[in-house]
């Protein structure tokens, strides 16, 4: 068992999850008995908040934070992060209430925190990861979306939209929560991208994502468009900054090579860089075709 679980807070946002709440809290405490749970309820009309209060009264490992209305997942997590940081928790985790994130796999994330990671993402799309009970069309859309995000941002992560995460407090303390994107559910990508850009140690571990059995999904189709539009803006800005840095470096190299009488070597270096970019774009295209072919055979 991870030694850090004694100072770990698992944040579980809820809205109309009265059927799932007994299952998820029981599984978390059975799998990782030393962690603490914070249920962040958005005034659920089905009584989820009242049930959470009863659990908190009988178990000091469970806490409840009530919000006035349905304020969205980002708002719930920010409220949970602030609550946990005020109480000196060293690790704060995100977990869905519907059982799609298996509490039995939480130790995989915490073990990487113990080994020095600042953010660990439970990934569906690294070797060993998988999805269960998802329609093939939805999985394909998710895979292609993450492929596009990876290409646009160049973050080197396979599942930046994933919501099963463990954060070290120092990373969260560096984030201005007011600056996080509110477009769709893209704040998960925003958090991971900010962590990568700031040089934090970000890792992925394989998890099994299981579609919910009880209740209804809170997602709607608009989040895909809103999210990808936002990512495209970040990607263009990021690539523009990279291009600016590359142009500066090429200019410096060219000046150096001209002084040393080695212009041909400078041209060769630029040609190699260009070919590497072509190879990368070709690999992205190949991966997209592979994903499509694999789904056609399902």
TrEMBL record:
Please tell me which top-level EC class this enzyme sits in. Answer: transferase
Tell me the CDD domains matching this sequence.
Answer: DPM1_like
Q: Which reaction is the catalytic activity of this chain?
A: a di-trans,poly-cis-dolichyl phosphate + GDP-alpha-D-mannose = a di-trans,poly-cis-dolichyl beta-D-mannosyl phosphate + GDP
Pfam families in the record: Glycos_transf_2
Which EC number(s) are documented for this chain? 2.4.1.83
Domain named Glycosyltransferase 2-like is located at: 10-174
Top-level division of the source organism's lineage: Bacteria
Q: Which UniProt keywords apply?
A: Glycosyltransferase, Transferase
Q: Which GO terms describe its molecular function?
A: dolichyl-phosphate beta-D-mannosyltransferase activity
| A cellular component term, taken from the record's GO annotations | membrane
- Enumerate the Gene Ontology biological process terms: glycolipid biosynthetic process
Which InterPro entries has this protein been placed in?
DPM1-like, Glyco_trans_2-like, Nucleotide-diphossugar_trans
Question: What PANTHER family does the record point to?
Answer: DOLICHOL-PHOSPHATE MANNOSYLTRANSFERASE SUBUNIT 1
Q: Which family does it belong to?
A: Belongs to the glycosyltransferase 2 family.
Report the protein name in the record.
dolichyl-phosphate beta-D-mannosyltransferase
Which source organism does the UniProt entry give? Answer: Corynebacterium flavescens
